[in-house]
Specification:
139 residues, flat, single chain, mainly alpha
């Protein structure tokens, strides 16, 4: 019944190598690189949203100027031309693709809304707890 340990115990791998750690090979981007790329994409989206809002405000200003022309036109023909230009600009402003982009929230707005929601839910929770405590004391 005596068997040497060397007969059945074998070791595969390199001495001192950590289990589960791979070495070499083509690794993908590091965690910090992935985080930086994600942050840059989020910043780019935020810049697009802000730019769309600015363009939308400019179109609204131009629309107001065209509306003012309808009131300042002295002749019937001038008024009709101004109203036609205003209607065309209004349809363009309503159906513009920037409206969808401008309606999105930036990252900062999303974080602010989550914080506000958390604070309001927290205060509601405190209010419920205080009400329950006062009801318990009254009994």
């Amino acid at each position: 019944m005596t068997t040497d340990i060397d007969d059945f115990l074998q070791h595969y791998g390199v001495a001192g190598m950590r289990w589960g750690h791979r070495t070499g090979g083509a690794a993908g981007p590091s965690r910090s690189e992935r985080k930086a790329a994600k942050k840059e994409a989020r910043n780019e989206e935020d810049r697009n949203i802000v730019a769309a809002r600015i363009r939308m405000e400019r179109r609204a200003g131009a629309l107001n100027n065209k509306a003012a022309l309808t009131y300042t036109a002295t002749t019937k023909k001038g008024r009709e031309a101004a109203e036609k230009a205003y209607d065309k600009a209004a349809k363009t402003a309503i159906n513009h693709p920037d409206n969808d982009t401008a309606a999105k929230m930036t990252h900062g707005e999303k974080v602010g809304n989550r914080l506000a929601l958390g604070i309001s839910l927290g205060s509601i929770g405190l209010l419920v707890a205080a009400t329950a405590a006062s009801v318990a004391l009254d009994r």
